[in-house]
Amino acid sequence: MSPSLFPCLTIAGLDPSGGAGIIADLKTFAALGCYGQAAVTAVTVQSTVGVRESVAMDGGLVYRQAAAVMDDFMPVAVKTGMLGNAAVVQAVTKLLREYKPEYVVVDPVMLSTSGMPLLNAAAVPVLQKELLPLSTLVTPNLPEAETLLRTAGTDVTGFTETFSGDNKEGNEEEKKEWLHRLSQACGGAAVLLKGGHAEGAPTDYLYYNGSFRAYPGKRIASRNTHGTGCTLSSAIAAHLARGMNLPDAVGAAKTYVSAAIESGAALFSGKGHGSLNHFFEK
């Protein structure tokens, strides 16, 4: 089928190194047979070594970029990444309320790998109250999930330990309860808790319709891991746009990301954390 039948819009920041942000999102959409569209929320100054600087777009400009696309060629799925500040969060919220795309995947990007803030603290409660309840799926990593839980007033003692990659015999009811709390902190949206920051073999957990599903993973020996979160959320959006249900879309996206990391291990990657190979040979 023609990829024009599966338009997907990313609303995220620009990474000039090409490993993350809208460039990684567009690569992912193309690799998975979707037509990529983009609205820029911020321009960063970064390389594989880290983020040096970030300049946010005006919220109204972000809205007008995306609205122009939606007025002309409505995406089936929208993925959001780096939003930067409360004004941009509010602009995206307004957009989604007005246009109501079928699927919305929110990657609540808060920090770069090198530790630079990509969402200011004042924007977190705005994100939580206004944008996340409109989402089909929210994809926090463990630190982001802790921030969302704390912002919702939840004591996070024991949270990370419960989802440690080595905690294979952990209490399933305890995990389910934490995931339920996380979903509530995201306005009742489905959540995919990413386990890459945990020790041991990473496992991701999808909480969906009151139950959860585990997606075990493995550590891949590669320093080319820049943009894995962007790529995963974009891949989920692409598979949703192509008609998969949410649990299958998550599984297919994780398979794609793992193969892109493995294939990217030998790529020339600069001096830091290089990009995945989004166009690996299948």
How would you explain this protein's 3D organization?
The structure is a single chain. The radius of gyration is 17 Å and the shape is globular. The chain has helices at about 20-30, 60-70, 85-100, 125-130, 140-150, 160, 170-185, 230-240, 245-265; strands at about 5-15, 35-45, 50-55, 75-80, 105, 135-140, 190-195, 205-210, 210-215. The chain is built from nine helices and nine strands. It is an alpha/beta fold and about 280 residues long. The model has no long low-confidence stretch (mean pLDDT about 90). The longest helix is centred in the C-terminal third of the chain and has 19 residues, at about 245-265. The chain has a nine-stranded mixed β-sheet with strand order 3-2-1-4-5-6-7-8-9, sandwiched between helices. Helix 1 packs across helix 8, helix 2 runs parallel beside helix 3 (about 85-100) and helix 8 (about 230-240) crosses helix 9.
